[in-house]
Amino acid sequence: MTAKLIDGDYVKNGGSLEETEHMEELLQSLALAFAAERGCFYPNKDFGSDLSGAAGDLLYAAGRASQAVSGTDGVYVKSAEYSGGQYIITVVINNEERQVAVSK
Predict the structure, then answer these.
(1) Which of 1, 5, 18, 104 is the most exposed place for a label (fewest CB within 10 A)?
(2) What is 15-68 written as a DSSP string?
(3) pLDDT tens digit string along 69-101?
């Protein structure tokens, strides 16, 4: 388990950090990869996506999201939607479908 993040901030439970399960941890990592601008993370220029360049083109957004998770085993992007100023990326993780919201 790892510390839980919401909007980039750790979640506290009393005096300690709240922990999260593996699936939730993976979804947090995917949200970070989708939100980060590709090429701007110095140690790994392949980290992140270019969702900001999608400009509402859902096929482009799904492709960029797929590129962001290409090195993650068992994770596949199924679709992308744009609603309320954010992308909703539907991913399949080991045959389990989940959604990740990314504000852009």
Answers:
(1) 1
(2) TEEPEE-HHHHHHHHHHHHHHSBTT--TT-TT-SB-GGGTTT-HHHHHHHHHHH
(3) 988 888 999 999 988 888 899 999 988 999 999
In angstroms, the CA 75 to CA 77 distance is 7
Confidence of residue 7 (pLDDT cuts 50, 70, 90): low
Residues 68 and 53 sit within 8 Å (Cβ to Cβ): no
Name, in order, each residue with C-beta under 8 angstroms of 77's C-beta and a sequence gap of 6 or more: 62, 65, 66, 69, 89, 90, 91, 92
How many CB atoms are closer than 10 A to CB 17?
14
Bridge partner list, 78:
none
Kindly report the pTM of this predicted structure.
0.74
